Amino acid sequence: MNETAFNTAADATLLAIEEALEAVGEAQDCDIDFETSAGILTLTFENGSKVIVNRQVATQEIWVAARSGGFHCGRQGDAWVCNTTRETLSALLSRVCSEQAGISINITL
């Protein structure tokens, strides 16, 4: 995938995460603040903890930084898959957000 295609896919994914978080907030009455700046999406939970999601152009990956560690997701077909846990980005975000928020959060991309 060339750089333009990667950036397009990554931007679409970051937007999909934002939309999924809005849906989770409405459905589960939980407050997750999020802000995007220069390809970095910062999620802030009610307890003050954060999850950072950003694109890495050089490696063509989406990286997730959470309390439980750092995760690198590469594109496999139509999905982003974590290189170490083999979780899809949706499953990974659902897990780390649930751990940090202290409630069950299901993020569907």
Describe the 3D structure:
The chain has 109 residues and is α+β, with helices and mostly antiparallel strands. The protein has helices at residues 3-28, 89-101; strands at 33-37, 40-44, 50-56, 61-66, 69-76, 79-82. The protein is globular and about 40 Å long. The two termini are 21 Å apart. The relative contact order is 0.18. The model has no long low-confidence stretch (mean pLDDT 92).
Helix-strand blueprint:
Elements: H1 3-28, E1 33-37, E2 40-44, E3 50-56, E4 61-66, E5 69-76, E6 79-82, H2 89-101
Antiparallel strand pairs: 1-2, 2-3, 3-4, 4-5, 5-6
Briefly say what this structure is.
This protein is α+β, with helices and mostly antiparallel strands. 36% of the residues lie in helices and 32% in strands. The longest helix is centred in the first third of the chain and has 26 residues.
Q: Enumerate the strands of the largest sheet in spatial order, edge to edge or round the barrel.
A: 1-2-3-4-5-6
Q: Please give the count of helices.
A: 2
- CATH homologous group name: Frataxin/CyaY
The helix content is: 25-40%
Mean pLDDT score, rounded?
92
What is the number of domains?
Answer: 1
> Which fold name is given in CATH as the topology?
Metal Transport, Frataxin, Chain A
- Backbone shape: globular
The class by helix and strand makeup works out as alpha+beta
Unreliable stretches (pLDDT < 50, length at least 5) are none
The level 1 CATH classification is Alpha Beta
Kindly state the number of beta strands.
6
Give the topology string: H per helix, E per strand.
HEEEEEEH
Cα end-to-end separation: 21 Å
